[in-house]
Amino acid sequence: MQALNTLSTPEEKLAALCKKYADLLEESRNVQKQMKILQKKQAQVVKEKVHLQSEHSKAILARSKLESLCRELQRHNKTLKEENMQQAREEEERRKEATAHFQITLNEIQAQLEQHDIHNAKLRQENIELGEKLKKLIEQYALREEHIDKVFKHKELQQQLVDAKLQQTTQLIKEAEEKHQREREFLLKEATESRHKCEQMKQQEAQLKQQLSLYMDKFEEFQTTMAKSNELFTTFRQEMEKMTKKIKKLEKETIVWRTKWENNNKALLQMAEEKTVRDKEYKGFQIKLERLEKLCRALQTERNELNEKVEVLKEQVSLREADVDLAVQVLQSCTLNSHEELGTPTDMEQGIQPDVESRMANSSEKTVSTSPVSGTETVD
After folding, report:
1. For residue range 31-88, what is the model confidence (pLDDT) as tens digits?
2. Which residue of 56, 258, 265, 336 has the fewest C-beta atoms within 10 A of its own C-beta?
3. Where is this region: Disordered (predicted)?
4. If 0-12 CB within 10 Å is exposed, 13-18 middle and 19+ buried, where does residue 17 land?
5. E-state strands within 46-167
6. Between residues 153 and 334, which one has the greater pLDDT?
7. For 158, which DSSP code?
């Protein structure tokens, strides 16, 4: 309004208002275009935000699942470690107990073998001594038989001399034979008993050998079980190494997901900041649009008022033109009459004609001034 007050004529004011109105229309159209572009961008940003929120929720779910899996793996690893440690301790304790029991049994077997060896050596010595005794008895028996043969020969030679003593000698021979048979039977019994003892010792040796073979088999089985336990321990260790590798991979993946989540959060924060800035710009544009709409309404009211004034002026101009035409016709008729009467124009006529011409020029200027008003209607 201050800029319009600076102008002098209403035509200039109308031209300035029309220019201002056209500029404001162009600005409003540009603002509307920008508004549409910003609304599209906002819709895209909202869609991206929803997509990012869904991805964020998915990432959170995946992270929670990964954390639960990691916790379960850690618990499983702890339980496996504890079970492996317990199994290793139990196997070590069993191995120690088995080795101690095996050592005790070996010591007992060695002690029994030593005792049996000592007993066998004693029996061998007794058998050797018995054999020597038997040899001595056989030699004595042979000597006795030789002596008896000699005695028989001597007795045969002296049979006639010792007929009286024959019965005595026969009785003595019978007694000696009985004693010899008794001794022989006793020695045979001792020999059979010694043989039985030797057989029993041999059987005991066979049984001890069987026990040794059984203990050796058990020791081999124990070694196989130890080897199997070592293999199981190695397999558990390999599985533990695999699980540690998997845990490292999962930790790397969790780090990657965490970085993605942080980047998404940063992007969301940036988008939120941009949205706040765009919302502020949108509010500013809305305020400008409201102001422009108010100005447009004020300009429209002013334009309507000016149109009404212009119509009033047109009516006045048309009335004045009609009056001027009538005056011109009257003046022309008067001048013609005076020319006819006098033949020369007077000074008054010369003065009237410029006035008429000036009025016609003013009327033409007014008609020209009304032409921009029609132009304003086209602009509207």
Report:
1. 999 999 999 998 999 999 899 989 888 889 988 888 888 888 888 888 888 888 888 8
2. 336
3. 339-380
4. buried
5. none
6. 153
7. T
Q: Which two tokens stand for residue 277?
A: 């800035």
Whole-angstrom distance, CA of residue 104 vs CA of residue 368: 139
DSSP string, 308-370: HHHHHHHHHHHHHHHHHHHHHHHHHHHHHHHHHHHSS--HHHHHHHHHHHHHHHHHHHHHHHH
Cβ neighbours of residue 116 under 8 Å, at least 6 residues apart? 201, 204, 205, 208
- Sign of the CA dihedral running 89, 93, 94, 99: positive
Closest CA to 187 of 141, 146, 137, 121: 137
DSSP category for residue 56: H
Number of neighbouring beta carbons within 10 Å of residue 310? 21
Nearest to 17 by CA among 35, 34, 5: 5
Report how far residue 335's alpha carbon sits from residue 344's, in angstroms, rounded to the nearest whole number. 10
Sorted by sequence, the CB contacts under 8 Å of residue 370 that are 6+ apart come out as 310, 313, 314, 317
Residue with tokens 């005790």: 104
pLDDT tens for 310-350 read 888 888 887 877 777 776 676 666 666 655 555 544 444 44
pTM of the model: 0.25
Q: Given CA atoms 248, 249, 254, 256 in this order, what sign does their dihedral have?
A: positive
Q: What is the mean pLDDT of the chain?
A: 78
